[in-house]
Amino acid sequence: MGKTKMSDDTTATAGEQTTTEQVTAEEVTFKAPASQEELDRIIQARLDRVNKRYADYDELKKAADRLNEIEEANKTEAEKAAARAEAAEKRASELEAKALRAEVAASKGVPVVLLTGSTQEELEAAADALIAFRGEQKTAGPSSTALGRVNQNVVKGSTGDQFADFFANQLSS
């Protein structure tokens, strides 16, 4: 079995591992850290290695952002016009659907918010279903005979005349 030796510049101690060379289990024995300071040193060494690996992250992020800006600036006018046309077509189709809903609601006499569907046929079918449902409902009439008598009286004249008649009736009673 071939054994590999660790180089002098990469020495593993107290739980550290080397990544540059493979070490057999016979050569490395785990030694637990004896003090908090030794554990802190091991952890700090590991953090330093990770920080060193990602030291250029901010520079790479700035470069990627700059690349995105350049790509956006390099879009051709045709691509920009196509994007604007697509947005306009979407807006137009939304407005057409809204107008169609309003038209069907007005012609059928139903609330716009209750209509479902996207085509004229679907909207008209929904409106017809609402009309049929509404037609089946019984309207509540007056529940009291006094209310029926009040509703049967026809009020004539202007508001001023009505007030004068009421006041005259109150004084005569």
Brief summary of the model shown:
The protein is mainly alpha-helical.
Could you characterize what this model shows?
The protein has 173 residues and is an all-alpha fold. The chain has a domain at 93-134. 61% of the residues lie in helices and 0% in strands. It has 6 helices and no strands. α3 runs parallel beside α4.
Provide tags for this entry.
173 residues, mainly alpha, 0% strand
Distance between the termini: 126 Å
Q: N-to-C SSE series?
A: HHHHHH
Helix count, per DSSP? Answer: 6
Over all CA atoms, what is the radius of gyration? 43 Å
Principal-axis shape: elongated
Work out the number of β strands: 0
Give unreliable regions as ranges: 1-11, 137-142
The biggest beta sheet reads: none
**Class from secondary-structure proportions:** mainly alpha
What fraction, in percent, of the residue positions are helical? 55-70%
- Average predicted local confidence, pLDDT: 77
Instruction: Quote the beta fraction.
Output: under 5%
